[in-house]
Amino acid sequence: MDLGLKDKVVIVTGASRGIGKAIALGFAAEGARMSICGRTPETLEASTNEIQSLGAEVLARPTDVTQGEDAEAFVKETLDKYGRIDVLINNVGGSRWTPTPEISDQEWHEILDLNFVSAARMSRAVIPTMQEQGSGVIIMISSIYGREGGGHITYNAAKAAGISMSKSLARELAQDNIRVNNVAPGSILFPGGGWARRQKADPEGMAAFVKSDMPLGRFGKPEEIANVVVFLASERASLVTGACINVDGCQSHSNI
Predict the structure, then answer these.
(1) Crossing angle between the packed helical segments 105-112 and 153-173, to the nearest 10 degrees
(2) Which residues have a Cβ under 8 Å from the Cβ of 105 and sit 6 or more positions away?
(3) Strand pairing partners for 33?
(4) Is 3 left (phi over 0), alpha (psi -120 to 50) or beta?
(5) Does domain 9-185+221-244 have CATH number 2.40.70.10?
(6) Domain boundaries, the chain
(7) Element at 154 (helix H, strand E)
(8) Residues 6+ positions from 201 with CB-CB distance below 8 Å
(9) Catalytic residue positions?
(10) pTM
């Protein structure tokens, strides 16, 4: 299936490893022109080399999207290079497992900024360009734990806020032909990720978790998230906006 993404300009935040890297490679395989960022230059360079090996054009910039000036500079550099932005993937996120009574105000702000405010910041930066073009796609990468309980309290709150923001943006921007959606992964395993660390530290506990929580009997793969994201960004999904789509192997329990 031709998804019609050749030469589209796609920004992916947090693209140096895991889900973000898989998403960037998925778009590159479709012939998109890539703009990626991450906080670690070494892993960002490795991701850039993989994208280039697929024959795709790529701009890579070490960037911390929780910092306003840094995020804005990244968007400006993308526009300076390509002249447009067709797709934004807000992938940056993460959690901590601090006991609830010990969570400081600063930690609340840091987790909200990482998972939610950074996505609002990046979206705000690209929306004027997409409005001028008369088209665009914004996709948030959240979590099934933004739709229901199960994760840490700060992470749940931040991801739930992102899902709510996506719906509001989708309704507001529909008149500009800008689609906004949310993809909610389940537990995804990749080298260096949180689930890989837990699996190494407690293999028996993780085996029990998989058996009790995952009907397919396994963790998800980053590429399985990427496949859905790339499709949603294409014109093949032209009527899909304001949606939050689980990609979790039926790990979640919500009916909606």
Answers:
(1) 40
(2) none
(3) 9
(4) alpha
(5) no
(6) 9-185+221-244, 190-219
(7) helix 153-173
(8) none
(9) 155
(10) 0.96
